Amino acid sequence: MSVExxxxxxxxxxxxxxxxxxxxxxxxxxxxxxxxxVDLDIAAGEITGIIGxxxxxxxxxxxxxxxxxxxxxxxxxxxxxxxxxxxxxKISNERxxxxxxxxxGFVFQAAQNSLNPLSRIGHQVLDLxxxxxxxxxxxxxxxxxxxLIRLGMDADRVLMSYQHELSGGMRQRVGIMFALVLDARVxxxxxxxxxxxxxxxxxxxxxxRELHQERGLTIxxxxxxxxxxxxxxxxxxxxxxxxxxxxGPTEDLLRQPQHPYTRGLIRAIPRxxxxxDEAIALNGSPPDLQTFAQSGCLFYDRCPDRIxxxxxxxxxxxEISDGKKVACYKVDRxx
Amino acid sequence: xxxxxxxxxxxxxKSGIFERQSVRAVRGISFHIPAGGAVSFIGESGxxxxxxxxxxxxxxxxxxxxxxxxxQDVSRVSSKERQxxxxxxxxxxxxxxxxxxxxxxxGQSLLDPLKVMAKTKRVGDSWIRDRANxxxxxxxxxxxxxxxxxxxxxxxxxxxxxxxxxxxxxxxHVLVADEAVSMIDVSLRLGVLRLLRNxxxxxxxxxxxxxxxxxxxxxxxxxxxxxxxxxxxxLEKGETDDVIQHPQHPYTQALLSAVPVLxxxxxxxxxxxxxxxxxxxxxxxxxxxLFVSRCPFARDICREKSPLLTGEGxxxxxxxxxxxxxxxxxxxxx
Lengths: 335, 334
Ligand SMILES: Nc1ncnc2c1ncn2[C@@H]1O[C@H](COP(=O)(O)OP(=O)(O)OP(=O)(O)O)[C@@H](O)[C@H]1O
Ligand SMILES: Nc1ncnc2c1ncn2[C@@H]1O[C@H](COP(=O)(O)OP(=O)(O)OP(=O)(O)O)[C@@H](O)[C@H]1O
Ligand code: SF4
Ligand SMILES: [Mg+2]
Ligand SMILES: [Mg+2]
Description:
The complex is a heterodimer of chains A (335) and B (334). Chain A is of the alpha/beta class and 335 residues long.
């Protein structure tokens, strides 16, 4: 990929390897399999886009990558191997805490609320440095300042500000600064542009693109908007009902989507060129507890291509060509 | 159906740092939406879109300007008549979850406005039932399957349809849809956009569609107009597809550039550019072009002289207006 050789300040990129990962939420209505037997390789130095509709398990997967799923959720199975570190689900709690922030930076959904409302941004940078035993706090602050300027902001003003004095777009940028200030090598962005207007979103994404190129970061970009990953990601992973439906290199996946769900998602994107009547809304509603209980394909109820076989059991997620994977009986049939 | 001339809104607010500050949220906007027509307001956060919508729905008063609904100037009628006029304008908010009472079923939320209508029409309960079914069908829902459901049992798209159905109970002439799809999953958005377009055509409703998403405007606004708003001012306006395909103002071009490019299916327009700087609402410079601090084409004159809206049919306010190719182009199939 386009990771140039000018990344001499940074060590080699870090990949993350998820194996057979499952997370459930215990609720009054029953157990929700929010992430179900997921196998996923997040390639070092690439931007991996994870897309799926609301409730498909994207945030839960992101939390599980850092072993920070909170109650009533529970990781029931699997491993998350981070290059050079080991299994996030097995290393000591103290080690995990250091990895989060130092090696893996994250900007969570609702990053708007993750800043401390009572403390100036600059103080929060210092707090972060102390909690990670950073010796030279002054140079950390300088680093934060440089990043903020890089992110298109008036750094001195921002460092002196409280959260409520910043607009939504500025808070997201501050969130990205926090994710990068300890020089994390893997950055997870969960819906970090969803609440922004289009222009703000585009500028934040543009900055992410530039930082990725400059630093050879490994980026996980989580969103429900196919357009966002289609523009930025090297690879796209499509999630449906806690499972992976399809993945592949971005251009491939957009040009030749295999899973009927992926095709539906791509057809449903409102465009500014071409015939507007060619866009078609996706039918039906997202999976619920009833869907999870059925033995067949999770997408069966909504699928325009379904065949009798689809009810037999869950389709197996497997490689269909180099770097492309899909879980669909109809696709299996074709070859 | 609805006509607005030189609408202005100034908010004065106290602020910690600046002792007293006034925000010119709307700086003299004029437009007209015929029955069945559509105008889309496009602009980023804070440009004054919601303010215009709220004024039209009678929820806020204008600082200056004339509003005519169905030909009647709202400032020249009795307050009772004014209320009746504003009732024909229904506002649909961004968040359908907040707009619906979680403790009331779909049927119950439709009941209140329908009872009022039944009273004025002097009709009975069977009319109410029929009308509830009718509005639900109109928004593309199966009355039998949703009427007893509560908001949490519905998807975002379905919830927004319920909100629209409720607005239709009062037989409005104008719908103001304020970011009505922005909180709905992208995969379900298109359906709601289609619905809004159908309502224009079937019920002859005039639509003011407020959004920051240019692509969405294209789906509801066919045969309508797009007005690009920046800090309370219209910078470019014209027929929807003309503005989208031949944008002339640098700001419109920035908004169009912000639409993600589908790699593999499209290539970015050669002139695509995305300003990395945020909008400064605090800027107090009032002379010259309001966009100047973010504009890549700005020259000295832009700081000295305010550009005025010029052109026929398709108008823009820029000293260096020029068509630029910022819209992504489809990759030719190979
Ligand atoms: N704290 C919780 N308690 C119970 N169930 C939960 C909890 N958090 C998530 N879930 C359930 O787990 C599933 C996956 O949720 P998750 O938040 O990971 O989805 P998501 O893809 O991130 O959705 P969104 O796009 O809305 O952020 C959903 O069915 C959700 O209802
Ligand atoms: N009640 C108020 N008091 C003071 N200022 C206000 C008030 N309401 C809005 N404003 C200011 O007026 C301007 C326009 O706000 P408005 O809500 O109309 O923008 P918008 O285009 O709808 O933005 P968004 O996309 O974020 O909804 C903003 O600068 C806002 O801060
Ligand atoms: S008038 Fe000048 S600053 Fe304003 S948009 Fe046109 S070129 Fe840019
Ligand atoms: Mg989420
Ligand atoms: Mg608004």
